[in-house]
Design goal:
The chain has 17 helices and 19 strands. It is of the alpha/beta class and about 450 residues long. It has a seven-stranded mixed sheet, sandwiched between helices. It has a four-stranded mixed sheet with strand order 1-4-5-19. Helix 15 links the parallel strand 17 and strand 18. Helix 1 packs parallel to helix 16. The chain is globular and about 65 Å long. The chain binds iron/sulfur cluster. Iron/sulfur cluster (SF4) binds next to loops.
């Protein structure tokens, strides 16, 4: 079948389904999929918009944790489907509630302060439930600083997972000293973060005075915990652990981890720019949601109800040559960039840039391409071509098959996922075991964010 025929067929099926179906799509999806979407957004916005829809079927074009988030917030009569059940997220896979519980219990015994677990939206329901069951919550890249600050202000510490770079960048935003931040490796060892151990180049030596007290890699095995005759170094380690404010899991997003300071330096050299390197923009300064940009010709629908302007932040777009990156990038990259923020913030900031300005963007390639297509009055280039291959698994053909399955379900020729045969294709559900606590964690995030407005 030709691409055109396929597109026409999928559009026809979609039209026939009318309001019974809604199709949300993430910004990192392919254009052929985005063009079929009813709304577009980042993971948080999609979850909120899905919760607001009354459609009986939500065909989610994103990765599994996002579809699961939609299923978590879905009304009892709604069914959530994903065109490819294997569209996962390696970062979300880097921690589960069993590992979290193990390390959380251990660090709680070692720390004088109450530890609140906070999980990034990019995680599965078991992790969200783990946090909800321990007075913890969820965060996104746009509100991580606000959420962590909320608990630190109460004299509590935070266990942050799974994205390490977001955790470290949040700690930097909050001005935490190095010896207040502890890394938890996936083998459950702990150490104070030392940027030099990470093998990254750094933009400006000495720009920030890092405390790099070496907490020797110490595995939190039972023997370590129960050891009563601690050596001097171990005593120092124990003291540091007692007063630590953030315990950060070392997960990562490979799509964002690849960007380097060298990429930024090369871009600046190419355009003859010395760089500013200190333009971290507080998310509050930029409209939180992506513009209601609508491309009437191809039917792309942006997020409704938002102005998308960066008004109020005079620095945004003030420069001719700019580097903007996602906070899942290494701190050295964030430090070397002019701006850093969530997907929504990146969109709004570039949009608000002055005509003729040049932007290098350190995030997923397709999203950067979409901005380049949308903001023709600027030059928008990828800092490096980095693609999320899990998002690529959602193809137009698979979307079409899922929509046909919905059609069959409505006509009664197939049943839902509980049926062994003739089932609704790729239905996403959340175990009852996790629902209540995961929702509690999500609700707490919303409450904290709304209270701070
Ligand atoms: S971009 Fe990174 S965090 Fe997002 S789905 Fe892909 S691998 Fe996961």
């Amino acid at each position: 079948m030709s691409d055109l025929t396929l597109k026409q067929e999928v559009m026809q099926t979609r039209r026939a389904l009318g309001k019974s179906v809604v199709i949300p799509a993430h910004h990192y999806e392919m254009d052929e999929v985005v063009q079929m979407a009813d709304f577009l957004g980042d993971s948080y916005k999609l979850a909120v918009d899905c919760a607001a829809t009354d459609s009986q079927y939500i065909v989610f074009c994103g990765v599994m944790f996002m579809a699961e988030g939609a299923a978590l917030l879905a009304k009892p009569y709604q069914k959530v489907l994903i065109p490819d059940m294997t569209a996962g997220c390696p970062m979300a896979d880097m921690i589960d509630s069993i590992q979290a519980e193990k390390i959380y219990d251990r660090i709680s015994k070692m720390c004088d302060r109450q530890i609140i677990p906070i999980v990034y939206m990019n995680s599965y329901a078991d992790m969200k439930a783990f946090c909800g069951s321990r007075e913890g919550t969820v965060c996104t890249s746009s509100n991580a600083t606000k959420i962590v600050r909320h608990f630190l202000d109460q004299g509590k510490s935070v266990f942050f997972a799974p994205d390490y770079n977001l955790g470290i960048n949040t700690a930097n935003q909050l001005g935490l000293a190095r010896d207040e931040v502890v890394t938890i490796r996936r083998d459950l060892s702990v150490e104070l973060y030392d940027p030099d151990l990470e093998g990254y180049d750094h933009p400006k030596d000495g720009k920030k005075s890092r405390k790099t007290n070496s907490l020797k890699n110490s595995t939190l095995g039972d023997s370590a915990l129960e050891e009563s005759t601690l050596e001097e170094s171990a005593l120092k380690d124990a003291t540091l652990l007692k007063k630590a404010k953030m315990f950060v899991w070392d997960g990562f997003c490979h799509v964002h981890k690849v960007f380097t300071v060298n990429d930024i330096n090369s871009f600046r050299r190419q355009y003859g720019d010395p760089g500013s390197g200190d333009g971290i923009v507080e998310e509050q300064n930029v409209n939180e949601s992506i513009a209601g940009d609508r491309n009437a010709s191809d039917g792309i629908v942006g997020d409704p109800g938002s102005s998308g302007s960066a008004a109020g932040n005079s620095s945004v777009g003030g420069r001719q040559i700019n580097v903007i990156v996602h906070p899942e990038c290494h701190e050295s990259v964030v430090e070397a960039a002019d701006y850093s923020g969530s997907t929504s913030m990146i969109w709004n900031t570039v949009k608000a840039g002055k005509p003729g300005s040049i932007w290098a963007v350190g995030t997923e390639f397709r999203f950067v391409q979409r901005m380049a297509d949308q903001f023709k009055d600027k030059t928008v280039v990828p800092l490096r071509k980095s693609v999320c291959h899990n998002m690529s698994k959602i193809t137009l053909e698979k979307l079409g098959n899922t929509l046909k399955s919905v059609q069959d379900h409505i006509s009664g020729s197939v049943q839902d996922h509980t049926s062994a045969e003739g089932r609704l294709l790729n239905q996403v559900t959340v175990s009852d075991e996790y629902k209540e606590d995961a929702k509690k964690a999500l609700q707490l995030m919303i409450d904290i964010v709304e209270a701070g407005k």
